[in-house]
Amino acid sequence: DGDVFKYYSEGEWKKSPSGKSVSIINPTTRKPQYKVQACTQQEVNKVMETAKIAQKQWAKTPLWKRAELLHKAAAILKEHKAPIADCLVKEIAKPAKDSVTEVVRSGDLISYCAEEGVRILGEGKFLVSDSFPGNERTKYCLTSKVPLGVVLAIPPFNYPVNLAVSKIGPALIAGNSLVLKPPTQGAVACLHMVHCFHLAGFPKGLISCVTGKGSEIGDFLTMHPGVNCISFTGGDTGIAISKKAGMIPLQMELGGKDACIVLEDADLDLVASNIIKGGFSYSGQRCTAVKVVLVMESVADTLVEKVKAKVAKLTVGSPEDDCDITPVVSESSANFIEGLVMDAKQKGATFCQSYKREGNLIWPLLLDNVQPDMRIAWEEPFGPILPVIRITSVEEGIHHCNASNFGLQGCIFTRDINKAMLISDAMETGTVQINSAPARGPDHFPFQGLKDSGIGSQGITNSINMMTKIKSTVINLP
Ligand code: G3H
After folding, report:
1. Is 380 a residue of the active site?
2. How far is it, in rounded angstroms, from Cα 21 to Cα 395?
3. Catalytic residue among 91, 253, 379, 380
4. Using CA atoms, how far apart are residues 293 and 367, in angstroms rounded to an integer?
5. Across the strands, what pairs with 434?
6. Which residues surround ligand 1 with Cβ inside 6 Å?
7. Which atom of ligand 1 is the closest one to the Cα of 163?
8. What is the pLDDT of residues 97-153, one digit of tens each?
9. Bond from prior residue into 442 cis (ω within 30 degrees of 0)
């Protein structure tokens, strides 16, 4: 069956013996766009077995050679940005320009991993024993960073390529092998990206990509005894994975409810443009999207007017036309978002625009005067719907932010840097941005969530370190 994309195992493109496939629905047309192999547990076993063998050789490959191959893969990926971006447009309805940006950013990320890896993995420590009480200078300890083994990477639909390479790059430079389970929406973009690694000439079995239904292979992958580390980005499936996973390092990034706290002295034009960028880019389908605005009552009317004027200018339509607002990823996602909107309506939120939906396309909507009893005050819509809560004190804003079960990022707008620092310290989130919308990048910055937003810290340097362990050798003198 020629029109089903093959999966990648043992350095080859293969069909699953299951003979089954999974359809990928184009969010814009709502019709099947592509098909991928429905791999079974048997194929997963094979991939794990070869990943283990390939890793042993790879760990012995000189670091500079590993870096060279990664640079090669990065260049090939950038050369193929157009067809990969085209898949993103069709699979996840990401606007055309942003799709290209995602691929280019991914190439840069891989190169940066190679550069960062040769520096940080090229250094170890040398310790002497006589600093600890009771010891003479008779023990010399040498440490270095060694790979973990097989890393399982599970990226989400919203950045299938970028959030895959943010796991693949650090894993490979550190000497690990990698098994990729792409999201269904975005799987074909991932397969194309993996092909760039194939073309770069990585050893057989070092990287593999298994597609299929989560219900069939999800738990089997995450609980597989061959896996030595899991790096997952997505929704609350991550919480289930961490409960079931064995005694292995986990890196999890599971969404957020990023608050935007606006003080009375803020530059409201700057705030409005950041709310638009932060709340509505990729139709709000980013874990770091601004998901609740907490604005001081005295400036709320002015801010809401400014944001409303900008919302009116957002273009709504297809990703091919590079519209600002494009269809959300699936019908069930659109239904969920609509549920949040209806709940807010019933409980008396002020609609700054009228609610409009056609298929999976939802028009941008700002909800003012949102109250804590509304679901939208707490839940993550992953859509172009943004609640505004009016506050009468900064403490109220901090309290709302910290009452969330999420703690990814947040932002504060004020001209008073001293106040901003105090509020930043009080906010229980992994990152606080002062005078800008939340964002993961630049990709070497640390990126981490507190509470239900995740485990561990990402960003290139942290991921490389997390995907290694310390090995010491102690020389004992007579
Ligand atoms: O969706 C989660 C991503 O990690 C957010 O990345 O801030 O670059 O959009 P971004």
Report:
1. no
2. 53
3. 253
4. 10
5. 412
6. 158-159, 286-288, 439-441
7. 4
8. 999 999 999 999 999 999 999 999 999 999 999 999 999 999 999 999 999 999 999
9. yes
272 touches 306 (CB < 8 A): yes
DSSP-based three-state secondary structure for 255: coil
Tell me, in angstroms, the distance from the centre of ligand 1 to residue 233's CA: 10
pLDDT (0 to 100) of residue 415? 98
Q: What is the pLDDT of residues 209-230, one digit of tens each?
A: 999 999 999 999 999 999 999 9
233-250 per-position pLDDT tens digit: 999 899 999 999 999 999
Q: How far apart are the first and last CA of the chain?
A: 69
253 annotated active-site: yes
How far, in Å, from the CA of 19 to the mean position of ligand 1? Answer: 35
Interface predicted TM-score (ipTM) of this complex, two decimals: 0.96
Work out the burial of residue 255: count CB atoms within 10 Å of its CB; fewer than 13 is exposed, 13-18 middle, 19 or more buried.
buried
Q: How far lies 411's CA from each of 75, 101, 271, 439, in Å?
A: 35, 24, 10, 10
Neighbours of 306 (CB within 10 A): 18
Distances (CA, A) of 263 to 25, 271, 412, 415: 43, 10, 8, 9
Helix (H, G, I), strand (E, B) or coil at 136: coil
290 Cβ contact partners less than 8 Å away, ≥ 6 residues apart: 258, 259, 260, 274, 275, 278, 279, 386, 411, 437, 438
Q: Which residues contact 215 (CB under 8 A, 6 or more apart)?
A: none
- For the chain, give the percent of residues with pLDDT over 70: 100
